[in-house]
Specification:
Helix content is 72%, strand content 0%. The chain has 289 residues and is mainly alpha-helical. It is flat.
Length: 289
């Protein structure tokens, strides 16, 4: 069985023997350090009796399971609202920042810069306390304003990154600006923007945990309520060990979804290269030799 030799690219040179040995040494040392760190954490968990049956028995109770599931459902509901509204707000603000009308562009820029600079928690508290909005709308509004302003910059940068020649060619065909943006620039920009969009949605998913500060009964709030009612030492550690893998799994699911969408886009007939038929000798015109 033969292995193909690595090929050099514009961003990567084939490492020599000494470099390969050095990289192997780095990899071994890093692996040992990581394993030692994980082993030390596991030792501390065992040393503080975090794996005893007494500390994990409460999670078998139906009431606690229902509380966790209800909190998870509320987290996903808040995230779904915030994700859809953030994408919509980001698109609107991006269009405003790309507008040829100066007042519209200035207003959109002011809104984007203001909401990007404002801490999410401050906006959530202001909407909840000062405007007297209920917990779920306050949480969704705060997440939407912040993440929408960030996504607006992502959309604007992605559209501007498309080759200028394609924009000029579309205008030469008589297309209006809206058509150029919708049918030429946006479909190409989405492929480049997709990883950043998913990363920002992951941020929105994690920021839903701020809802427990305004008494919204989301996943973290349910975990805090469970831990505060347990009567043994360090009750938060088992709760965190239950909640954290679920948050990580949701974020990984979003990343998988982004990969799946990108793969489908590459297989889309509209974006695949069309094979050209081999050239064949044409017929001679009458009177030709």
């Amino acid at each position: 069985m033969t292995h193909s030799a690595p090929t050099a690219t514009a961003l990567y040179d084939i490492p020599g023997p000494q470099t390969r040995r050095r990289h192997l040494l780095y990899g071994i040392v890093s692996t040992v350090v990581i394993l030692a760190l994980v082993g030390w954490i596991v030792y501390l968990l065992f040393d503080t009796d975090q794996f005893t049956a007494e500390k994990w028995r409460p999670f078998a109770y139906k009431g606690i399971q229902e509380l966790l599931l209800r909190g998870l459902g509320n987290t996903l509901k808040a995230f779904a609202y915030a994700a859809v509204l953030s994408l919509a707000l980001g698109a609107v603000l991006a269009v405003g920042r790309l507008s040829v009308h100066r007042p519209v562009r200035w207003i959109a820029t002011l809104l984007v810069e203001f909401f990007r600079a404002m801490p999410v928690l401050v906006m959530i508290f202001f909407i909840f306390v000062a405007l007297k909005v209920h917990a779920l709308p306050a949480l969704v509004a705060g997440l939407t304003l912040y993440n929408g302003s960030v996504l607006a910059e992502v959309f604007r940068t992605g559209i501007n990154s498309v080759d200028r020649g394609q924009r000029e060619a579309a205008y030469a065909l008589g297309m209006r600006k809206t058509q150029v943006t919708t049918f030429v620039l946006a479909p190409q920009a989405v492929r480049a923007m997709l990883p950043t969009i998913i990363s920002q949605l992951v941020v929105a998913l994690k920021d839903t945990s701020l809802g427990y500060l305004i008494t919204y009964e989301e996943f973290l709030h349910a975990g805090k309520l469970i831990a505060s009612n347990l009567d043994y030492d360090l009750p938060f550690i088992p709760v965190v060990m239950v909640i954290s893998p679920i948050y990580i799994g949701l974020c990984m699911l979003l990343s998988w979804f982004a990969t799946w969408v990108a793969r489908r886009q590459r297989r889309n007939p509209r974006t695949e290269a069309v094979g050209a038929a081999p050239a064949e000798p044409g017929k001679l015109l009458p009177g030709g030799q």
